[in-house]
What does this fold into?
Amino acid sequence: MTKWTAPQVEMAWFSALCDDDYEFLGQPDPALRSTFEHCRNIVLTADRYGFDNVLLPSGYQLGIDNTAFAAGMAPLTQQIRMLLAIRCGELVVPQVARQLATLDQMLGGRLTINIISSDVPGEKLDSEPRYRRSTEIMYVLRRLLDREGVDFRGDFIDLTLEPPRIATVSGNSPLFYFGGLSPAARECAAAGADVFLMWPDVTASMLEVKADMDRRAAEKGRSLRYGWRSHVIVRETEDQARAAASRLLSKLDVDAGTAIRQKSLDSASSGVARQTELREAADDEGYVERHLWTGVGRARSGAGAAIVGDPDQVLAKLHELAEAGIEAFILSGYPHAAECDLFARHVLPHMNHGRLEFEPHPVTV
It folds into this structure.
């Protein structure tokens, strides 16, 4: 087995709260529906194996509520952090500040936050003002979670308020994770994110995005850390891993895959467009690089590629990305609990991993 010599990274898994768990992509299975029991078992598997964090996604149309789920999981988990996605279009900031501080106390300080620049359900706001609204929300939310009063007059928030009595365990805001590729999204991330998340891409393109984000953040007197959100398929041999990838798509109807992608609220985003470009550039089997398979994106919006290979090959790809500056990985696979078990047994023990720890920068507006 290859020895891990790259820097320490945060390893996170994914709990399929948004009806996104399959044995065969595009073939819903009642046993894999997003229920509290099913998603609980995914998180408990990741916690038992020692993953550092777990992403709890959020979608208005699909699955179960992730905030209620996180509260229910707090007393059931031991050490794993929870990366709670919050949708900016669906929240009232003072209320969510109290809610997040309460959750962090229930988790013993193990809360992290994934900022989603969403629309209000049933409404549509253009990209630039939507991301400007998200920047204002991040600014006010961080101040309240940092136990600071707010006197703010923005385009979307007009608020003078002292922080709530309840505070996080540390007395400070949890880390903000954030992703998006459009110019407006990049400016929003540069102003307010702590960890900039990228979907799968070839390494050269990832480095171009990272360089651009470093520049944008520096112009605002800030700096960013970087994360990678993708799927993974690891088996004892490369042939077995590639066969597992093919099997995953073996029952997919093209029209059903298109319907699944279009159902997502982010189906028209710049990030999704880039995932489409990768699929179009891939070979006949869907590989845009030897170990980067784009087939997942045929039946899923969002992160649409998987690292595929034997344990050494998967570890080498993660090592390559870590050396390029990725400090947090959020991985998933199908079915999620089964692939978590495979990755945890074959790859995780050979990595130098731990929680991402640093002092976040203030948000600029």
Summary: The radius of gyration is 19 Å. Residues 26 and 253 are 7 Å apart (CA to CA). The mean pLDDT is 93. Residues 127-145 form the longest helix (19 residues).
